Amino acid sequence: MNLLLLKPDQINQQTATVSGRQLEHLIAVQRAEVGDSVRVGEVNGLMGQGIIKTLSAEQAILEVSLDTPPPPATPLCLILALPRPKMLRRTLQSVTAMGVKAIYLVNSSRVEKSFWQSPFLQPLALEEQMTLGLEQARDTQMPKLHMRKRFKPFVEDELGDIIKGSQALVAHPITELPCPINSDSAVTLAIGPEGGFIPYEVELLNSVGFDAVHLGPRILRVEVAVPALISRLFPA
Q1: pLDDT tens track for 63-91
Q2: What CATH architecture does domain 4-68 belong to?
Q3: Of 37, 108, 131, 210, whose CB is crowded by the most CB atoms within 10 A?
Q4: Cα–Cα distance, 236 to 46 (Å, whole number)
């Protein structure tokens, strides 16, 4: 945890109350003591410093000063075929840490139906993973996450508007066009499930303006391909 990310209900004027997982981290990992200064931020707000005023096994009280904006967002909208739940958790943390603020989890022919019944798709569970990504990257802006269980209607009815003003790319190993490097414009990036999008799905994406691109001859897992593509498009 490189940033103590506070929800608005934890802050009262210039005082913040910390408990639970965050308190455990302060005590066990940071070995914090009264008087110490820690990096803090408010969800969807500013960042700054917090001075620990009281510290116990139940809670910590901090005097906070928030005056620093978060880092700029990565100009990327990610369209991601729903991966298996454990991979989804790692991937959400990674893309959030890399500054992605618009995420669509979509269905695909190769997505198992059982994935959509996973408890990891509950709003609080998804928020927890994105919070971990923000804490890692010292960011406060929570991504907006959308779920679409019907691929064809999503592509035909919504995706055309979503990609306006951006370069639309779909990751696909069977194509001759390599993924661009150092993009200087906004990008909408579609990434399929394990095994990739089926040909019909790629053709449907092509029909609304997506270009198929590859990362080379190696076939990567989704959790590896996602950060590899983002870091190629928008190097840190």
Answers
A1: 999 999 999 999 999 999 999 999 999 99
A2: Beta Barrel (2.40)
A3: 210
A4: 22
